[in-house]
């Protein structure tokens, strides 16, 4: 153990300073100022180097957190980065957008003892950003040439990109198909720049391209090729499309103009940030400028929407959520950031209908809720609780979560099995779908979840696909 560790009793917890709300609420730059080297070393030295590191246990990737905190505290930053990259394909992205308060930091032993968690995410972000600046991020070098085997990956989100990198490292020829015109999935089009600036995703994509991975954008399976046609082109396929179908709200007046889906709203904002032509933004349909905005929902997507509306120049932004603060699914840090930026939260409130002025929404009619007994997820269930209320609105954004699209129909693959929730059914051991040689990973299997879980699934499925292709090679040798 490094001699400079266990300083949590002498050194207090200190996160990177945030830019003041008046400075940050009119741009889409990340809100936290970066650590300097001395501060990263100081905060890393607070780690207690636990015999059973709960931070590592509760990280979906089981990152070697105590090891790289010790290395950082000793100034061995290149080695710290190598330890991060050993288990994660996107450590600088996880350092920015993982809900550390619910995962590694939330389970930090010194947090439980009242000293405040080690600032794990901030250290991870600092070290990996420095690694890019210093040239420590190594290019992809295939361990051997297996290019006689071709792999197709449907979806350029975190699960698909992780699998693509790890399979390319093993030497396979890899092609990634995506229906958007840029890679990254929700990293690019769903998450706003104030949480994840887009150059961070772009440099990862460039590294994959430089490593020999081929990308085919604006490619829709079912339109440009059926699943069976893609399967005939490749020795194995991975479906990693994520879940994009918005859950709809059923209430009187829900079809009024000005009621929009969260993902449509966020994609328009991110495209505008890229400099794309976005007609629905220019027309005002997906632009909050000068409007009274109400966002319905309590997850991280809802937080992205309210904070985007602030930056677009909304006159007021309110978030309606049917539970209270303690029972919301979104990050507590994001709620705090939103409140600092002027967002008002209306807790224990559910929409009951919408009023319209002509074709455009003018108000949300709501009902007060109360909390009942806990449900299967441990959160108390909302129940009707009392009086009605009315909230004026010119733009309503519904952020109620996402469900899987009907992939068997979209892909022209009726033999592709799904669960009762619409997610793809896979063999838990092999991660293969009901179609031989076609695998699936990420949200399309587990349902809407965290980016870090998608990375974990991409890592796991890469190993299963490698095993499958090795077995195919052996079978061909035996048959020859």
From TrEMBL:
Keywords: 4Fe-4S, Iron, Iron-sulfur, Metal-binding, Oxidoreductase. SUPFAM superfamilies: alpha-helical ferredoxin, Nucleotide-binding domain. Pfam families: Fer4_20, Pyr_redox_2. GO terms for molecular function: 4 iron, 4 sulfur cluster binding; metal ion binding; oxidoreductase activity. It comes from the Bacteria. The keyword Nuclease does not apply. Residues 26-135 form the Dihydroprymidine dehydrogenase domain. The keyword Transferase does not apply. Residues 151-458 form the FAD/NAD(P)-binding domain. InterPro entries: DPD_II (IPR028261), FAD/NAD-bd_sf (IPR036188), FAD/NAD-binding_dom (IPR023753), GltD-like (IPR006006), Helical_ferredxn (IPR009051). This is Glutamate synthase [NADPH] small chain. It comes from Pacificimonas flava.
């Amino acid at each position: 153990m490094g001699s400079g560790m266990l300083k949590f009793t002498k050194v207090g917890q200190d996160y990177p300073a945030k830019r003041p709300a008046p400075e940050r609420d009119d741009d889409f730059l990340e809100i936290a100022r970066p650590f300097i080297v001395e501060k990263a070393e100081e905060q890393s030295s607070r780690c207690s180097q636990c015999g059973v590191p709960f931070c590592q246990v509760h990280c979906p990737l089981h990152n070697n957190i105590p090891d790289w905190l010790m290395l950082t505290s000793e100034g061995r930053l290149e080695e710290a980065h190598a330890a991060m990259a050993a288990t994660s394909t996107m450590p600088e992205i996880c350092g920015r957008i993982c809900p550390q308060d619910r995962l590694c930091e939330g389970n930090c032993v010194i947090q439980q003892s009242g000293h405040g968690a080690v600032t794990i995410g901030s250290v991870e972000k600092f070290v990996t950003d420095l690694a890019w600046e210093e040239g420590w991020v190594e290019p992809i070098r295939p361990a051997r040439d297996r290019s006689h085997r071709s792999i197709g990956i449907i979806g350029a989100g975190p699960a698909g990109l992780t699998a693509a990198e790890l399979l390319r490292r093993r030497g396979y020829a890899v092609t990634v198909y995506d229906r958007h015109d840029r890679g990254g999935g929700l990293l690019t089009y769903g998450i706003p720049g104030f949480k994840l600036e887009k150059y961070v995703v772009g440099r990862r994509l460039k590294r994959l391209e430089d490593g020999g991975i081929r990308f085919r954008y604006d490619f829709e399976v079912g339109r440009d090729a059926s699943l069976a046609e893609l399967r005939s082109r490749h020795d194995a396929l991975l479906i990693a499309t994520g879940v994009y179908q918005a859950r709809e709200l059923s209430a009187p007046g829900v079809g009024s103009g000005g009621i929009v889906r969260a993902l449509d709203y966020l994609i328009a904002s991110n495209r505008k940030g890229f400099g794309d032509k976005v007609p629905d933004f220019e027309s005002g349909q997906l632009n909050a400028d000068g409007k009274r905005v109400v966002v319905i929902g309590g997850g991280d997507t809802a937080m992205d929407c309210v904070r985007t509306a602030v930056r677009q120049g909304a006159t007021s932004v309110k978030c309606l959520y049917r539970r209270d603060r303690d029972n919301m699914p979104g990050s507590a840090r994001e709620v705090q950031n939103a409140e600092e930026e002027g967002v008002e939260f209306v807790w224990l409130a559910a929409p009951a209908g919408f009023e319209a002025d002509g074709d455009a929404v003018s108000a949300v009619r709501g009902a007060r809720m109360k909390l009942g007994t806990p449900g299967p997820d441990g959160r108390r269930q909302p129940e009707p609780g009392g009086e009605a209320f009315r909230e004026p609105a010119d733009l309503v954004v519904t952020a109620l979560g996402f469900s899987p699209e009907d992939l068997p129909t979209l892909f022209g693959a009726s033999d592709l099995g799904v669960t009762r929730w619409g997610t793809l059914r896979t063999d838990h051991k092999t991660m293969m779908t009901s179609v031989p040689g076609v695998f699936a990973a990420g949200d399309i299997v587990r349902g809407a979840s965290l980016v870090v879980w998608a990375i974990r699934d991409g890592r796991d499925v890469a190993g299963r696909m490698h095993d499958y292709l090795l077995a195919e090679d052996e079978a061909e040798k035996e048959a020859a």
